[in-house]
Amino acid sequence: MIKQYIQKTVFISALLLASANIAAASEAWPATDKTGTEIAFYSDASGIVYQERLGTFFIVTNAGCVKQINLAGTELSSYCTSEWKDFEGITVADYDSNYLYLGLESSSSTQAVYEFDLSTNSLTGKSWTLSGMSVATGAGLEGLEYVNGYFYAASQNNGKIYKYSVDLSSSGSASLLGSFYPYSDYTKDLAALSYSKDTDTLYSLYDGGNRLVTTKGDGTYINRYQLPSTTSNEEGFVVVPNCSKSTTNVVLTEDSGRIMLFSGFSIQSVQCPVVDADNDGYAATVDCNDNDATISSNKTYYRDADGDGLGNATVTSSVCSLTAPSGYVTNGSDSNDADYDNDGVSTSSDCNDSDNSISANQTYYRDADGDGFGTSSTTSVACSYTVPSGYVTNASDSNDSDYDNDGVSTSSDCNDADNTVSSYLTVYQDFDGDGLGNPNVSQQVCATSAPTGYVTNNTDTDDSGVVSEPTPEPTPEPTPEPEPVPEPEPTYSPIEYLNNGVDDDGDGKIDEWNTLESNGVHPDADSISVTSFAGATNGAIKVRYDDGSGYRYTVFATTTSKLTRVSWYEAAESILVKLNRKYAVVDAFAGSVLQRYTAAKK
């Protein structure tokens, strides 16, 4: 009882102080929006409250309904009961809870508050009676608000606000702590209450004269305003919290059913408490995320539609994040946001928008014969400057089956890599080097001329290759005063050949041993040319030297051919040859058998 007495005494003292300090104030509507916008319509709409946690409005009607809408007026939920009618006020005690509190007007002296559960969208069954209010028939509880732990109930009958203490844990009777006039001259038609805890401002709506009075939460008078002329018979009023700004939105409900939104309503933002939850030096009123010390203001990011890391300066997104949203970057330096590789060709027209070295498809031509010239009849289109295998960049081949482009196709050309030849040439062996070919020894060659040892004619009647002493030209029959005809000088070989009965080296000796003194050096294929020889068999000759060595050579029949060593006999005139169990001593140079032996049986 003592505590209750002290509370009443303090409250009444505050009211007396408020009444003593009322001063003249402007009554102009404190919003830039003078006409408002109808966002919804509910017949007999009365009280309204803004649930900060949900960011939506809840409206009660005289028909016993609770409607939930958003700022656009879209209905989100609805509840109606036939048990109770004439709900006039609605408030929230704890924005983190799921409960609303509905004020019920009664013709008796006792008014009531009912608890409503948002999670079940129904009344919970708990209620509290409000005694001691001045009421009359049709003029009882008209507004309800929760201010600093107490219920404030508005009386339409006398224009006063009644303060109650309520135990919300269970149903019962509320304790009346006192009452006050928001403005002493307004003694009736108090229709609605709305409290902003951020600015500690209580708004009291009077529908009789279309007036709005502001006080502090304890009843201290602040100001009064004239409502817009576009509204009448107002039933509800709510201020949307927006402490970080100097203006906000307010919503009025009318008996007619209109739900009216007004923007640009001035608020006392200087009274907002300074909160800096993340301690980054920026108050919650200006900090875009007061729970993150790494950021305090929105960052501007630029659309990067082509994904090249460069953003479009004309398409931006401002978000409270140090991380760019998907599809955005931190710069706005892209001159064409539809050109990933920035080569001046848009993505839709660029064959490879990831490579700024190429933008158009390249045409390549099939080079089937590999001659470096392509055919226009077979192409390959690729977005690459790398020529595909088997293709070239030109289409200048008139026949892609003719590598050397000599007019003969690869299948018919004996050498399609050489445009000087296309068909085989028949050549004949010229063993004796006389320029005449052997008609019995021929071959086909893919060439324009005969290889060494061959000629293109076949007119040689004797191509055996035997060389004899030069035969002097016959002396012509003497004529009157004939000129002497010189006898041709014989041509000699640097060496003497074995057992041919000819003086090969022209020293006047026949078949003598060769000596280093008379012959200089042993025959060498790189230095000794043979001009004549005799007694050879199939082009093979044998030479014996006085150091006991013997050599066997082959030689081409032409006069410029060099000797080519086939075999040699090491300082011996004879060799021992074995055949099964028989042996023979053979002349190494003549090839004749000198003596035969038979091995004895063991």
Please name the defining characteristics of this protein.
602 residues; mainly beta; Neuraminidase; 5-stranded mixed beta sheet; 4-stranded antiparallel beta sheet; 36 strands; 34% strand; rod-shaped; disordered N terminus
Show the helix and strand layout.
Layout: H1 2-20, E1 37-41, E2 45-51, E3 56-61, E4 65-69, E5 75-80, E6 87-91, E7 99-104, E8 111-117, E9 122-130, E10 141-147, E11 150-155, E12 161-165, E13 172-173, E14 175-180, E15 190-196, E16 201-206, E17 211-216, E18 221-226, E19 234-239, E20 247-254, E21 258-266, E22 299-303, E23 312-319, E24 328-329, E25 362-366, E26 375-382, E27 391-392, E28 425-429, E29 442-445, E30 454-455, H2 516-519, E31 540-544, E32 550-555, E33 563-569, E34 574-579, E35 582-587, E36 593-598
Parallel strand pairs: 9-13
Antiparallel strand pairs: 1-21, 2-3, 3-4, 4-5, 6-7, 7-8, 8-9, 10-11, 11-12, 12-14, 15-16, 16-17, 17-18, 19-20, 20-21, 22-23, 22-24, 25-26, 25-27, 28-29, 28-30, 31-32, 32-33, 34-35, 35-36
Annotated CATH topology of the domain at 2-268: Neuraminidase
> What percentage of the residues does DSSP assign to strands (E)?
25-35%
Rounded mean pLDDT is 82
Number of helices: 2
CATH architecture of the domain at 2-268: 6 Propeller
Class inferred from helices and paired strands: mainly beta
Which shape, going by the Cα principal axes? rod-shaped
**CA-to-CA gap between the ends?**
154 Å
Spatial strand arrangement across the major sheet:
6-7-8-9-13
Low-confidence stretches: 1-26, 533-538
**Count of individual beta strands:** 36
What top-tier CATH class of the domain at 2-268 fits best?
Mainly Beta
Largest sheet: number of strands, sense, barrel closure: 5 strands, mixed
Oligomer: single chain
Radius of gyration: 63 Å
Name the helicity range: under 10%
CATH homologous superfamily assignment of the domain at 2-268: TolB, C-terminal domain
